[in-house]
Amino acid sequence: MFTLGEIALIGATLHGMAPGVPVAGTVLVSEGSLRVLAPDQALPTDCVQVDCTGLFIVPGLIDGAAGHQMEHDILYVAAGVTTVRHTGAELARGLAEARASTRDQVPGPRVLYGGPRMASETSVPGMQWPMAAKGEDAVRQLASLLSGLAAEGASLEGLVNDETLALSSWRALVPAAKEQGLELWGPLPKGATLEEALDLGQGGIMGMDALLPAQGSWEESNNQEALEASIQRLAKGGTAIVPMLGVLGRVLLEYPADTPELSFLSVHMVPLWTAERTRWRREVTPEFRTRLEGVQRAQGVALAGLLASGARVVPGSGTPNPWLFPGRSLVEELILWQAAGIPAERVLHAATRGAAEILLPGEPKVGTLLNGAPADLLVVVQDPTLDISALRNPAYVMVRGKLLTRSDIGARLAALRKSQADARAVLSQHLDIEPPNLPEDARVLLSGEAEVYAAGLRLTQEHWIVGRLPDGARLYGSHLVHLQSAGQGGRETMLVQRITKGVLDSFDLSVKDIASGKVMSLIGRRIDGSNQMQVERRLDGTFLSNTPLRDQPALLDVSPALTTMILAQHCPAGENPVLTMEGATAEPRIWPWDLTVGEDGLLRVRSGAGGVLCGVDMHGAPQVHSRVRGDRRSDFTSLRVDMHGGRGTPPVKSRVSTLTPEPTPPNTTNEDQPVPTEDDKL
């Protein structure tokens, strides 16, 4: 990789100066920006010269819709993608990964980060941001977030929503965001119309379904007049659209079982991808395939109409939805555009200068090769203005002035593959975890070890313990390790909860980030004489906050084992306030859990944070704990139980589970139980 001094790319044909006019010249790069020299113009004597004779140079590609993950940076760069509009990530992580200093370390594409996806108030915090159903409350949430970011010297480059956002919130947030100089992008919420989005000033719409009339589908030939009217309204209104043809197109492709690309992906993504592949093989019959191909053609016709009408159209991949490979899926999206009859030159413009004009209107040289433009470009062997597939496998990629050769890219891809293999090895190893510490005067009643799996991958391993103090108080302790993968750092959690006369009296929680060594500590104490608890947070011993909780929690939900036992032993049927710690900063939040007890002794929980099915055996040991959040499910597996010479902690008979759980097979994926998605609509 060339990074020092000036770099001259000599002898190539340049696309990215004036539209439609290729130029022969030399691209000279210095300090992260470029200028174009005539072929006979003298070069600086000390510059690095790279012979590009017979090759073609184009601006770096811009992906208008990608769920960026930092571990996949090299996958974007390898495909020539140098800018990504992020479709949502947890706030602290998203801000950190989007910083220019972080981007330079990788190197990776520039990330335009718009915060977590604004979603319904019952969504799970993290990648999603639960917004109040009332518009005025949602606006206050947005104002609070933006003011907090401003106080820290941080900001967002737009906002993102998903289709679950309450209609009243969406109607209030679009104009509120505009007042803050931000655009809201995303699919239309349920019940919203294209006309309303245009009237409000929605910045961008994700997906083509917004063009359809109410209750219409892509299979109805009588929708053409309504589609054309929608196209004209969109072009006139100025709201952008990200078609994402590949979201449907991926279903029509074949994926061998030994697809090598899977080895580059996060270990937690692979089972989801393989499950989708199995589902498509089962469900995409020849008849259904014919229907999907018809839908694909109809969407291609609509896309051509959008571009012909002058609508603002931004290519976006939709990665990392299953089989939309980070980086490369944008090029495959562009190939679908050309297959729809759009000239390759027009497609290339849309993915470079055109996308930049919409996403970065204040930076007119992004997406070009004009003098002073950012040094983001790729060098390809064939002319992409004749066939856009020439963008595949570029000979060189430059990101912010750093030039990577094919050998550089190959070495980084090999390193990523190795890190993912190492992560899989870590996930398969059994850990020797010490039991959590209880006070010396506590009598141990029950202990054990357990693991949690999701889609066949081991996520956590835990050593739990139950004790009793001389005053009768019950102690529940857990030493929990969140296993490390290539893209997610490992965490070590220690938790002790004290329950006196059936009420959570106190808890002590510490969460250690294994990579950095930083420790977040939370101390919860019930205020004497009240039905209220205060939670103190400290980072590496430094005081952060002291938060009074509005409700007395029944438990702190961190450990599947402890949550199962406390629910079974101490929580009545009906609503129970449960404390969770949200995000990287461990903000305390109360969720109401609606608990029911079945005739099988299993406990069933419904809450805004998802569903839980759990139960204990006749000795009170956790036996079952399955959790569903959105389209993700995790399952608990007990490894061993020790009753320490006693009877354990027997629950009431009605709460003894009669289910005999089957062990979760390690490192396997049950492809017959596909993970549902919302991306395969007609």
Q: Quick gist of this model?
A:
With 682 residues, this protein is α/β, with parallel strands linked by helices.
How many distinct folded domains?
2
User: What structural category characterises the helix and strand content?
Assistant: alpha/beta
**End-to-end Cα distance:** 45 Å
Secondary structure: number of strands: 32
- CATH fold category name of the largest domain: TIM Barrel
Shape: globular
Percentage of residues in strands: 25-35%
Record keyword descriptors for this entry:
682 residues; alpha/beta; TIM Barrel; eight-stranded mixed beta sheet; 32 strands; 26% helix; globular; disordered C terminus
Detail the topology: elements first, then pairings.
Elements: E1 7-14, E2 23-30, E3 33-37, E4 48-51, E5 56-59, E6 61-66, H1 73-78, E7 81-86, H2 91-98, H3 100-105, E8 110-112, E9 117-119, E10 128-130, H4 135-151, E11 159-160, H5 167-179, E12 184-186, H6 194-200, E13 204-206, H7 224-237, E14 240-242, H8 246-249, H9 270-283, H10 286-309, H11 328-339, H12 344-359, E15 377-380, E16 396-399, E17 402-405, H13 406-428, E18 443-454, E19 457-468, E20 474-482, E21 491-500, E22 503-513, E23 519-526, E24 533-539, E25 542-548, E26 555-556, H14 560-570, E27 574-582, E28 587-597, E29 603-607, E30 610-616, E31 622-629, E32 632-642
Parallel strand pairs: 1-4, 1-5, 6-7, 7-8, 9-10, 11-12, 12-13, 13-14, 26-27
Antiparallel strand pairs: 1-2, 2-3, 5-15, 15-16, 16-17, 18-19, 18-32, 19-20, 20-21, 21-22, 22-23, 23-24, 24-25, 27-28, 28-29, 29-30, 30-31, 31-32
Helix pairs in contact: 4-5, 6-7, 7-10, 11-12
